[in-house]
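#struct-pred
JK: can someone run the complex with coenzyme A? inputs below
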Amino acid sequence: MGPANGGCAIGSLNGSRQRITAGITTTMNTVANYQSVEQLRDRRAVTIRAIKPGDKTLLREAFKKLDDTSIRLRFFGPKMELTDQELIQATEIDFVRNVALVTCVQESARERIIGVGRYITYEERRPPLTAEVAFIVEEDFHGQGIASILFRHLVLIGREQGVSRFAAEVLPGNQTMLKVFDRAGLPIETKASTDCVHVTIFLNNDARS
Ligand SMILES: CC(C)(COP(=O)(O)OP(=O)(O)OC[C@H]1O[C@@H](n2cnc3c(N)ncnc32)[C@H](O)[C@@H]1OP(=O)(O)O)[C@@H](O)C(=O)NCCC(=O)NCCS
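RT: done, C-alpha cells with the ligand placed:
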C-alpha cells in the first residue's frame, strides 16, 4: 500500500481520449485522471484508478489490514504503519516520474483500496528509461488477478510515458510476484543474488538492449 518505491514528458496523455486494448476500455485524460473498470476472476467489478491525495485514510486503513508476510515481501522488512510523511509521498505524486494506481471495491457504500501498483522512474539522462515497479494486494483478494491487471495498466501508461523497462527487486521465494511478471507475456530477464531476484521486464519487444 505504501510509499513510493524508492522525466519523461506526459505528452500524448494530455487531452481526453478513448483507448481500447485487450478487451478493456480505458479513459485517459492525464494519467492523474486514469480510471478503468475491470472484472476479477470471481466476476466482481473493481475500479482501477490513479491514486489521489484524498486517499490517505483509505491507504492507512488498507495497510492496517495487511499481514506481516505481505509487508515483509513488499518492504523487505517489518513495518507497523505508514507515517504521515509516507502517506504524503505515496499519494501526492507527479504522475510523470512517479505513477501509482489503486484497485478499489465498494464495501458498505464506501470505497476500499485492495491493491496498489506503482512505478517510479530512475533518474536517467538518456533512453532506455527504466522504472522500478512494485505491488501489494490485500490477502483476501489474492489470486483474483489484481496484480496482473495493475501490471497491465502500468505497462500501458509506462509505454505512453516513454518507459522502456520495468525493474523489480523480488525476495527469493516470492513465486507469486515472479509468476505475475512471467505471465504478462513480455520479454523478461531475471538475475538472482543471495538476498534478492532482480527482474527486468522489457515493455516493447524491441527494447531489450
Ligand atoms: C505478489 C502479489 C502482489 C500478487 O497479487 P495477486 O493479485 O494475488 O496476483 P494475481 O492474482 O494477479 O496472480 C496471482 C496468481 O494468479 C496467477 N495468474 C496470474 N495471471 C494469470 C493468468 N492470466 N491466468 C491464470 N493464472 C494467472 C499467478 O501466477 C498466481 O498464481 P498462484 O496462485 O499459483 O501463485 C500479492 O501476493 C502480494 O501483495 N504479495 C505481498 C507483497 C509483494 O510480494 N509484493 C511484491 C513486491 S514487488
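RT: quick notes.
Residues 146-160 form the longest helix (15 residues).
Confidence is low (pLDDT under 50) at residues 6-28.
JK: thanks, will look after standup
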